[in-house]
Write a structure and sequence with these properties.
Helix content is 44%, strand content 15%. It contains 20 helices and 18 strands. Helix 9 (307-312) links the parallel strand 11 (296-301) and strand 12. The protein is globular. The termini are far apart. Bound molecules: phosphoenolpyruvate and magnesium ion.
Length: 573
């Protein structure tokens, strides 16, 4: 029977397909001391045999539904189960440390995954996901059996989510003929969303989460129809393999749709396809209003692989590269060389078009374990972004060196997040000067034309924008954070979304105030927060004097269309 659910649509596209429920097992694996290590080895052997049988079944099932390409992953995982080094490692940990098989498996998974991730080879890097997946399966089987039993003498925990949340190799039961599913999860962190394989996912549905979370932003930039926050009951009400329609525009989900609903869906989808086709005709056209005002429409990205979408949507440039994703995707601080390679690639691919790279904006919801950030009561008001960079200048300088070295390969702008004071900006500019001085001494090439900008995403920055503007080339308004801080509404909290009114007069006045300050001192101003794509405000922004809008790649043409329909002349008022 048809079931209806409603959440918040975050990417306006529709999908019809089959549901895959993905339940994360976040319980840390316990380290239990054991004396009978022979028994632990036997438990491990039995778990392996069961895992091998499960993988065999999965292989055949997936082969039938998704073909050899989709199924091959399970063959690779079976081989991993038999891998000598992997097995030796588990045995050694059991014997040497006198611990339970679950713990030995989880630690082995972490060690192997880390080793694979560090390899400079995409194939090997992908194996990290496999080893986590297969180990997660083993731990699951081990946990499902009688407990470790023997004489536990104190426990601690690896703190590791042994299953990892990596969807590669997930049990894609119920994939459609293209091997794609509607992925349904309770919630996802930004790095988990970044790890999603867009080729396997038709749509994304989460039980929890808010529309301004980085998860939602990522789903948008990956062009994945997504509905967020459908509620906790959803995961229990649907089953793997159920057919569903996901409408990322209205936020509606229809599970087991009847013929009438299906027909409506197909009609709406045809309409959407036609609208998209019309937008395609705007490629190559200018972002110019009817009365001749031109603006730039750039794209926001979070990874090098997003560049294809930037180019396909004909953006003028990149207005925001969220560089922290380089850090989130990594298990240790990315080196100067790794960062340089990524920045250079982006600059070269954009062939002289503007590329604005935002320095590390980690903290709050974007966390990487190796930063060892303390738990905070109010992380959004805590130790994050530029605060971390200024307190740990070695991390900051590594990034700046990579950026300045890459600057000779294109048209770079560097932007700093979460600015609240003049003294902060003075210190940042000093550090940039130090890096450039070092380069001059060492004869390392860099461009003298790198534009320097700051994000206006705290009320403080907007209020003192007249003091900050003379120090920079540009401002970029981060409306996501500016809204959260101005209206005192945590952007991660879906329960207060009704209070986070992005059209609030206070937010709009702060943007206008910043635009006036920027122009008074010869700086330009853009908007890179999600509000930049809200076409009901395009006219307001242009009238304020906004010079650039930077939006998810998939919104570039929609905003271009809105700009080209505007008449800002006095007579049109
Ligand atoms: C913003 O705050 O509006 C912004 C663009 O930055 P982020 O969403 O990455 O915090
Ligand atoms: Mg922000």
């Amino acid at each position: 029977m048809i079931q209806r659910f409603r959440g918040k649509g975050v990417y306006n596209a529709m999908a019809l397909g089959r549901i895959l429920l993905f339940r994360k097992d976040n319980t840390a694996v316990e380290r239990v001391s054991v004396t009978d290590t022979v028994r632990e080895r036997e438990r491990f052997e039995k778990a392996k045999a069961q895992a091998a049988r499960q993988l065999e079944e999965l292989y055949h099932e997936t082969l039938r539904k998704a073909g050899e390409d989709g199924a091959a992953i399970f063959r690779a995982q079976q081989m991993m189960l038999a891998d000598e080094d992997y097995n030796d490692s588990v045995y050694r940990i059991i014997e040497d440390q006198g611990v339970n098989a679950e713990y030995a498996t989880a630690v082995t998974a972490d060690n192997f995954a880390e080793m694979f991730s560090a390899m400079d080879d995409e194939y090997m890097m992908a194996r990290a996901a496999d080893v986590r997946d297969v180990s997660g399966r083993l731990v699951g089987i081990l946990r499902g059996k009688s407990c470790t039993g023997t004489d536990s003498t104190g426990t601690d925990s690896t703190g590791t989510d042994s299953t990892g949340t990596d969807f590669t190799g997930t049990d894609f039961t119920g994939t459609d003929s293209r091997g794609k599913v509607i992925l349904c999860v309770a919630d996802l962190t930004p790095s988990e969303t970044a790890a999603l394989d867009g080729d396997k996912i038709l749509a994304l549905v989460t039980a929890f989460g808010s529309v301004n979370s980085h998860t939602a932003i990522l789903a948008r930039s990956m062009n994945i129809p997504a509905v967020i926050g459908v509620g906790g009951k959803f995961m229990d009400a649907v089953r793997n393999g159920d057919e569903a329609i996901v409408d990322g525009g209205t936020g509606e989900i229809f599970v087991n749709p009847d013929e009438e609903t299906r027909a409506k869906f197909l009609e709406k989808q045809r309409g959407d396809t036609e609208k998209k086709r019309l937008l395609q005709e705007l490629k190559g056209k200018e972002n110019v209003t009817l009365d001749g005002r031109k603006i730039k429409i750039n794209a926001n990205i979070g990874s090098v692989s997003d560049i294809d979408r930037v180019l396909a949507n004909d953006a003028d440039g990149i207005g925001l590269f969220r560089s922290e994703f380089l850090y989130l995707e990594s298990s240790d601080y990315p080196t100067e060389e790794q960062q340089f390679t990524a920045y250079r690639k982006i600059l070269e691919s954009m062939e002289g078009k503007k590329v604005i790279i935002r320095t590390l904006d980690i903290g709050a919801d974007k966390k990487a374990d190796y930063f060892n950030l303390k738990e905070e009561r109010n992380p959004a008001l805590g130790f994050r972004a530029i605060r971390i960079c200024l307190m740990r200048p070695e991390i900051f300088k590594t990034q700046l060196r990579a950026l300045y070295r890459a600057s000779v390969f294109g048209n770079l702008g560097i932007m700093f997040p979460m600015i609240t004071s003049v003294s902060e900006l003075e210190r940042i500019l000093e550090i940039c000067t130090e890096v450039k001085e070092e380069f001059r001494k060492l004869g390392i090439a860099f461009s003298e034309n790198v534009e320097i900008g700051i994000m206006i995403e705290t009320p403080a920055a907007a209020i003192i924008s007249d003091r900050l503007a003379p120090m920079v080339d540009f401002f970029s308004v981060g409306t996501n954070d500016l809204t959260q801080y101005t209206l005192a509404c945590d952007r991660q909290n879906p329960d207060i979304e009704q209070f986070a009114d992005t059209h609030h007069e206070a937010v709009l006045r702060l943007i206008e105030m910043s635009a006036k300050s920027a122009h008074r001192y010869g700086a330009w101003i853009g908007i890179c927060g999600e509000l930049g794509a809200d076409t009901t405000l395009t006219e307001t922004f242009l009238r304020m004097g906004i010079d650039e809008l930077s939006v998810s790649p998939s919104f570039v043409l929609k905003v271009r269309d809105a700009v080209r329909r505007l008449d800002l002349s006095e007579s049109a008022r």
